[in-house]
Every structure is written in structure tokens, then in C-alpha cells.
Amino acid sequence: MNIKKLIEKVTENWSVKILCFALAVFIYMFHIISMLDRKSLIVPLNVVADGILVPLDALPQNIKVTVRAKSDVIATITSSGISAQLYLTDFTEPGVYDVPISVSLSNELMLVEPLEVFVKPDKIPVLLDKKVQKYLSVEPSISGEPSHGYVIHSVSVVPSSVKVVGPASIVEKTECIYTDKVNVKGASKGLSAVVGLDSTIKILTVLPEEDFRVTVAIEEAKTSATFKDITPHILHLNDDLLINSAVPSVSFTIEGSVSQLEKYKLTDSTVSLDCASILQDGEYTLPFIFSLPQGLSVGEYSPKTALLAVIVKNPVLSEDETDIDDNFEELDALKDVPEVDATTDVQNKNDNDGDVNDDNKEEGEIL
């Protein structure tokens, strides 16, 4: 058979022959595909935004990737051999873009035959904004309440500021960034905790990426109690002296911790007047003296001083005063003697004189 006849035989009914060849290839591929197993994997999505724009909305952190391979191979395929990227570097104007997802395979997976990889969706709509950076203060976030009688004195965080990078419309409105919550419920002493940052604003990148140490200082809560019209206790008053006036009362405020004041009760020694300096009767102005346990102190009180009138219990009299008293005693004694009638005394005297004259007369007659 010469070449001319061979060409004629090959090109004879060529359209039918091409159709049959395509059908054979399709059947072969269908047979190969039908022998492949399917597997779905969750792969982290890496956003590459090294340009002048950044996403304004939060993007998915993972995507779903489907792979097909022979049953004896597909069991060895894992997500570690597949990476997904979203490239935003080439965009230069803010706006909304449908950005395709790029998938890369490890060198081991590149050698697998046959292997099919599908990503759904294969594009993600992204809203891009201008990239800016700003230094923000870090504010510690506290939850819970300390134990009864205790309060938070101070809270500090290290480092106290960070640099954030993100879309201009978000960064410019952000004044500070908060840490994760530190729980102080029931605490009665200071504590320290290492925490991260609150992930509420996920589209901001914090530099440097590190943990933050929050230190909480806790101390006893301070309060006050008021006592009104309390009579002070009298101290060191001389045994020969006596207070001849009402002892002034005093109203005062005691300051201290909640735990101490809740247990404290007034005693005789709480407030007093020291009379050791009083040596004789008279009027004296004395300051109030307060005696309190350690940790408690006196705040405002009124009045500031007390006025006392002091007298002698048994006064010692002078010599003249003693004579006068003796005369008064004699007079008092005479008041107790019965009174004598003067007329009776004269009559008795006259009677006695008459008797004498009669006796003399009788004697004359005898002579």
C-alpha cells in the first residue's frame, strides 16, 4: 500500500473516527475517576497583605479543600501538605474585590498521580481600606469582685502600650486596646496573671505579638463609724475632789478597715478625760483623750474640749473658821436648856427675906 492510499484510508470518515477517539478517552477518564476516593480537609487561610491596603472586614480563618486520589493514597493526604493563600498585595485602591484563593501542594503531593484538588468557594469578596499604624495604650480588663472588706487599690499592665496596624477607618477610632479578663473574685491579696489581648477587633495586627502581665494590688477597704453623745470616762481624779457638774458628752467618728470596725465595740477607755493635773477646786477645760486599737483612728469629733467644775469633798477649815464653828455649836447646845421664869425667882427671894425677918423678931421678943 502506497502512502497515498494510506492517507486516503486514514482520512476516510475522519469525523467519525475523531468522535470515536474522543469517546474512548472519555470512557478511559471516567473509569479512572470512578476509581478515585474523595476526602475533605480544613486548611488555614493565609492572608498576604504586604501592600498599602488591608481588609476592613474579618476574613475566614479556614477554608474547605476537597481532594480526590486512589484509595491506597488518599489516606496519607493531610491538611499539612496543603496551603491556601489570599493575595492582597497587588491592590492599590480601596474598594471591594473578588479575590481568588490560591492553593499550594507540598512536594510529596505533587508526585501523587492521579490527584484532584477543589476549593469551594474559589473566590472571596474582600473590602479593602488604606493601611495605617498607631500606638495605643493597653488597658487591663478585670472581672469579679474581691472578698468582703477588700478593694482593688491599683491595676497595672506591662507592656503598657503597643503598635497596631489595620484599616484607617478602624484604627483612627480606636483609643485603647484591652487585655483578656483577669478574674479577682474572692481575692483578699494582690495577684498577677499573664494574659493575651482581647480578640474582639480581629482585623488589627498588634506589634510586637507577645503576652501581657497584669498586676492587681488589693487592700483592705476603709470605712468609718460615727458614735454620738458618748460620756467620757474620768481618769486620775484626786480622791479628795468631786466633779460638781455634768460631764459633757462627745460625738466622734472612728476610721479604719471594714473588718476591724465591724468587730469593734466601745469600751470605757475609748474616750476619757485625764484629771491628773487638777489639784484643787475650780473650773477646768480638759481635752478628750481617745484610746483605740492599732489600725483604727479618730476622725472628726465635737466638742474639742470639756469644761468641768471641781469641788473639795471634805474641806479643811482655818483656825478662825474653827472658833466660829465652836461658838455656833455652843449656841446650839444652849437652845436645848429649859427656860427659867424671872417672876418666880423674885417671889422666891421675897419669901426667903420674910422668913429671915420673922426669925429676927422672935429673937427680939425673947431678949
What can you tell me about this protein's structure?
The protein is an alpha+beta fold and 367 residues long. It has eight helices and 23 strands. The strands form six sheets. Strands 2, 5, 8, 10, 11 and 13 form a six-stranded mixed β-sheet that branches. Strands 6-4-1-3-7 form a five-stranded mixed β-sheet. The longest helix is centred in the last third of the chain and has 25 residues. The protein is rod-shaped. It starts with a helix and ends with a helix.
Q: What's this, in brief?
A:
The protein has 367 residues and is an alpha+beta fold.
Topology:
Blueprint: H1 3-11, H2 14-34, E1 36-48, E2 53-55, E3 62-70, H3 71-74, E4 82-87, E5 95-100, E6 102-105, H4 107-110, E7 115-119, E8 123-143, E9 150-158, E10 161-167, H5 168-171, E11 176-183, E12 191-195, E13 205-207, E14 212-220, E15 222-230, E16 233-235, E17 241-243, E18 250-257, H6 258-263, E19 271-274, E20 282-287, E21 289-290, E22 297-302, E23 305-312, H7 319-334, H8 342-366
Parallel strand pairs: 1-4, 8-11, 16-19
Antiparallel strand pairs: 1-3, 2-8, 3-7, 4-6, 5-8, 8-10, 9-14, 10-13, 12-14, 15-18, 17-23, 18-22, 19-21, 20-23
Question: Quick check: average pLDDT?
Answer: 83
Structural class based on helices, strands and sheet pairing:
alpha+beta
Strand content: 35-45%
Unreliable residue runs = 340-349, 352-367
H/I helix tally: 8
Helix amount: 10-25%
Output the radius of gyration. 59 Å
Cα end-to-end separation: 244 Å
Number of strands: 23
| Major beta sheet summary | 6 strands, mixed
Shape: rod-shaped
